[in-house]
Each structure stands twice: as C-alpha cells, then as structure tokens.
C-alpha cells in the first residue's frame, strides 16, 4: 500500500473542490427532502374539489319539539300556551356533503343526511343549486343515492379500491363541516375494519383527517385521487373532531350501488340467528381449542336456521365454504347471499363438526329474537323468581328463569359481566325455571372450573362464561 502524501492545492482547485462538495451535499439534502416531503394536496384539492357537493335538507315536523329540542319535557307547554309563536309545523334544517359518481347528476351520500327530508337542495362547487330526489337508500349501511337534473355533463369522482388501503396511508377528507363549503383536511388511515356499534354491518375505515358535523357523506380520497371511503361518523366527547373519524369503505358502496339505483333498496339474505363473540372463557367451556367462529345465542322459530337444524350453543365456523373467524363475519356473509340460495354451514356441536344445508331467505324486516335465562350465590349473585308481573315488565314471553337482583362487586359474576336485571335461563345447559332450579344447578359446580350461563338481557339472549371461584365469595 502506497503511503499517503499531502499535496498543496492551488486556490482554483480548492474552490472547485468545495463547489463540488457543496453541490453534492445540496443534492443529498434535496433527495432527503423529496423522500420526507408531504404529498401534493394542492393538486388533489383542485382535481377533486368540483365533484364534491354541499347538501342542505328541510324536514317538516308536525309536532314542534320545543326550544330545547325533541326531548324538552315542556314541549307540550310550549305548544299550548305559545301556539302563535310556535306553530304546529316546525321546519328542521340539516347540512351534509356528497360527491358526484355519474355525469347525469347521480350523487352518493349518507342515509342520515337525507333521511326523512321533504326537500333536498344540492349546491355544486361553482355555486349552482339544484333540487334533488332520493333514488335509493339503505339505513343499515348508512348509504344513500340522490340525483339532480343539471344542465350539461358534470365532473365525476373516480372510485378506488378500499381493500388496497393500508394503515398509515395518507388520505384527504372533503366536505362542508359546519356548513363551511369546499373544506379540505388531511390525515392518515388510522385503522381498518372498525366496529363502532353503528349497525350489524359495521366495517369502517378510521382516520385522523378532521371530520366534523356537515362532513357526513363527503369523500375520503387517497393520493391517487380516488375515492376510497364516505365520511360518516366521528368519536367525540365534545361533538367536534378529536382525531377519530370513520368512513364507509367505497367497495361496500360499489357493491350496493346497482340495487340502490335500480330498486331503491338493498336485498339481503336472512338466516334467523342471533350470534355473539366466542371469548376464551366460552371457548373453554365448550371444549374448543381456541376462540373463533360465531356462537349462536338464539334461533328464530320457523327461520331458515331453525329448519336446517341449527341450535342455540352451536358455533358456526364455516359459511358457504368460507371460514367464519369472528362473529362479525357472519352477518356480512349472510347479507351478501342471494335469497333462495342453498348454503352449507359447518357448526361445532358437542366438540363435533356438523355440516347443515340452509336455504337462505330474504331479510324483510327486523325479526323478533327468542328470549333467554339467569343465576346466583357462590358466584356473587342474588336472584329471585320471575313473577308474571316481572315477566311483563321485562317483555318476556313467560314467567320463567331466575332474575338477578344484585351482583357482588369484584365477584366471579361481576368479572364475567353478569348484570343486575339479567334473567338466567340456563346454567351449563340446564334449564332454569325458577330460583330452586338455579340453586340446584350451582350446587354441584366444580371449583376453579368454568360454567356457561344463558341469560336474557333486554331483548337479546347472551351466553356468558363465569369462572367458578375456588373459595366462596365474601361480602
């Protein structure tokens, strides 16, 4: 290896060397900046702004709700004594957003934006206003299609693929929050497939892009300039954005659009079961290796499920050849099945797999669920018989079961989630007709084991697994 020799450099050579070095450094910084630069929101806003519309609605209420809203306890007083000031008909106005999906003026928005509206006015990006009519709507997914008769062709929002969205991806929310038209906010996809208790078909995109009242029905847009969601709801303690917003995936809307446009409603399959999540405790009590599937809590008499032989306590693990990983999977699978179709359903019953053939019916309306039962003592429960008066007050079909009147704080029952007011219908598959049945059922419980309760809670039955304490609860 040759020794390194220092050599003197002329002034020109030194300046040239520094210039090259600085240029290289600038180029590196520029590359870094390009890597970490924010997306070009300006171009997106300019491109998609014209497809977003402002929707204002008017609803005529026959009964004046009072100056403090529909829950005003003095509403009747206002009507009687201030009739001239507060007439019998009251106009309630609402604001929302939407976006154009066809050049003929077809617009996609939320059902709650236009529901019960007697008058709908759509304002375009350039200020033009048109009366709109409802083409179709679906309350269960909160989707609605409306239409305006505008002159000339309108700009159309390109619909993307919401299944390709990734958590952390940049998105843009557009709409009219608080009536402020043409508002754009940016954020990322915070989560996917969120269930927020909005309905049986929850499957929301969560974002931290600012969504506020009035944004409902507006588009959620990816960096390719495609609509990937419909802004629908926010989680907030104040009523304003705190960084937790929810959007309906556009793929769901694309799936339902044909029926909404041609029939005005959505046709869904109906099985006739009430299902719940299989918790680790319930899986243990049923002898399952791991939690999964949809636990059948009740079966509607005469329903397709009842005719096929599905029973309460069955765990549905496959539907039409597809695995049911979570209880929330099943409602979607059934809803997407064409009524009249024959489907094979695999259930776990007494640790055995059974395949049952079901002919799916059409979901006409909300069907009544069947009731369920309840429990007491070593578990921390106080119970009493269900009298005819109690049954009537609770909306039960018959005076049967054990009513939970108290749950000891910190007890096994409390930890499992049993509540005061639950009616115990079964304990470890034993029917509970009264307190005597209940006491016999718990007398032989294995300490340290798990016991499965079937209870009626409100209008719905529920299975609850309770871990039996090794020692008796102490007050």
What does this structure look like?
The protein is α+β, with helices and mostly antiparallel strands and 475 residues long. 20% of the residues lie in helices and 33% in strands. It has 11 helices and 26 strands. The strands form 5 sheets. A 6-stranded antiparallel β-barrel has the order 1-2-3-6-5-4. A 6-stranded antiparallel barrel has the order 7-8-9-12-11-10. Strand 23 and strand 24 (430-431) form a beta hairpin. 37% of the residues are buried.
Brief account:
With 475 residues, the chain is α+β, with helices and mostly antiparallel strands. The chain is 20% helix and 33% strand.
Secondary-structure map:
Layout: H1 11-36, H2 41-48, E1 52-61, H3 75-81, E2 90-100, E3 106-110, H4 111-114, E4 119-123, E5 129-138, E6 143-148, E7 170-175, E8 183-194, E9 204-207, E10 219-221, E11 227-234, E12 245-249, H5 250-262, E13 269-270, E14 273-277, H6 280-285, E15 294-299, H7 304-308, E16 315-319, E17 322-323, H8 329-335, E18 342-349, E19 352-359, E20 361-362, E21 381-385, H9 388-394, E22 402-407, H10 412-416, E23 423-427, E24 430-431, H11 435-443, E25 450-457, E26 460-467
Antiparallel strand pairs: 1-2, 1-4, 2-3, 3-6, 4-5, 5-6, 7-8, 7-10, 8-9, 9-12, 10-11, 11-12, 13-20, 14-15, 15-16, 16-17, 16-18, 18-19, 21-22, 22-23, 23-24, 23-25, 25-26
């Amino acid at each position: 290896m040759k020794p390194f020799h220092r050599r003197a450099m002329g002034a020109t050579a030194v300046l040239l060397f520094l210039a090259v070095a600085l240029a290289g450094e600038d180029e590196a910084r520029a590359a870094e900046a390009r890597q970490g630069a924010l997306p070009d929101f300006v171009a997106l806003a300019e491109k998609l702004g014209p497809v977003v519309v402002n929707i204002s609605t008017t609803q005529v209420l026959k009964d004046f709700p009072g100056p403090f809203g529909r829950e005003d306890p003095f509403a009747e007083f206002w009507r009687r004594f201030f009739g001239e000031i507060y007439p019998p008909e009251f106009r309630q106005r609402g604001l929302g957003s939407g976006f154009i999906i066809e050049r003929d003026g077809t617009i996609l928005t939320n059902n709650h934006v236009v529901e019960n509206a007697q008058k709908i006015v759509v304002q375009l990006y350039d200020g033009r206003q048109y009366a709109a009519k409802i083409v179709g709507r679906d309350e269960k997914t909160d989707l609605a299609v409306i239409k305006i008769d505008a002159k000339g062709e309108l700009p159309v929002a390109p619909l993307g693929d919401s299944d390709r969205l990734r958590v952390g991806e940049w998105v843009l929310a557009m709409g009219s929050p608080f009536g402020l038209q043409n508002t754009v906010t940016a954020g990322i996809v915070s989560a996917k497939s969120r269930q927020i208790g909005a309905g049986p078909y929850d499957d929301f995109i969560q974002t931290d892009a600012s969504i506020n009242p009035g944004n409902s029905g507006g588009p959620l847009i990816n960096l390719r300039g495609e609509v990937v969601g419909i802004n629908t709801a926010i989680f907030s303690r104040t009523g304003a954005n705190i960084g937790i917003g929810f959007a309906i995936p556009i793929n769901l809307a694309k799936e339902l659009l044909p029926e909404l446009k041609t029939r005005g409603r959505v046709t869904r399959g109906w099985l006739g079961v009430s299902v719940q999540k299989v918790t680790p405790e319930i899986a243990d009590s049923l002898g399952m290796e791991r939690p999964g599937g949809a636990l059948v809590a009740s079966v509607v008499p005469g329903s397709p499920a009842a005719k096929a032989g599905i029973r309460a306590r069955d765990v549905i693990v496959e539907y039409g050849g597809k695995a049911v990983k979570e209880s929330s999977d099943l409602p979607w699978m059934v809803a997407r099945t064409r009524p009249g179709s024959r489907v094979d359903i695999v259930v776990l019953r007494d640790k055995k797999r059974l395949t049952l053939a079901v002919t799916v019916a059409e979901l006409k309306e909300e069907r009544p669920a069947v009731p369920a039962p309840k429990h007491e003592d070593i578990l921390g429960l106080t119970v009493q018989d269900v009298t005819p008066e109690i049954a009537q007050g609770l909306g039960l079909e018959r005076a049967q079961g054990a009513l939970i009147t108290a749950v000891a704080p910190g007890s096994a029952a409390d930890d499992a989630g049993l509540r005061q007011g639950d009616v115990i219908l079964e304990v470890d598959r034993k029917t509970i007709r009264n307190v005597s049945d209940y006491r016999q059922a718990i007398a032989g419980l294995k300490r340290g084991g798990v016991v499965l309760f079937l209870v009626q809670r409100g209008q719905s039955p529920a299975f609850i697994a309770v871990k039996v304490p090794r020692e008796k609860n102490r007050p």
